[in-house]
């Protein structure tokens, strides 16, 4: 996984972890991932912001979420049905032509 560079300023935050968590193989990364996941789930962070927080591209972040079975904002059947209805209306108005 590559680390994305940005011209934006960064803030460093220090977190105190209990000893049992601090003994994990990479407690800092675990905490950062938990922050990104919760921020994304609660909509405090956009998909783009959560991906950047973890140094991932949007596609890498999608894979990260999928690996953890997190589908909170996944494209749903309802989304598909709305898109099909929109396409049908655009087609009727002559604004969309199928090949």
Question: How would you describe this protein?
Answer:
With 99 residues, this protein is mainly α. It has a domain at 19-73. Helices cover 53% and strands 0% of the residues. It is built from 5 helices and no strands. The chain has helices spanning 19-22, 27-41, 47-53, 58-67, 77-92. Helix 2 (27-41) runs antiparallel to helix 3 (47-53). The longest helix has 16 residues, at 77-92. It is elongated and about 65 Å long. The model has no long low-confidence stretch (mean pLDDT 87).
List key phrases describing it.
99 residues; mainly alpha
Query: Radius of gyration, rounded?
Result: 19 Å
Query: What sort of overall outline do the alpha carbons produce when their principal axes are compared?
Result: elongated
Distance between the termini: 39 Å
Helix tally equals 5
Explain the layout of strands and helices.
Blueprint: H1 19-22, H2 27-41, H3 47-53, H4 58-67, H5 77-92
Helix pairs in contact: 2-3
Short description:
By secondary structure, this protein is mainly alpha-helical. The chain has helices at 19-22, 27-41, 47-53, 58-67, 77-92. The chain has a domain at 19-73.
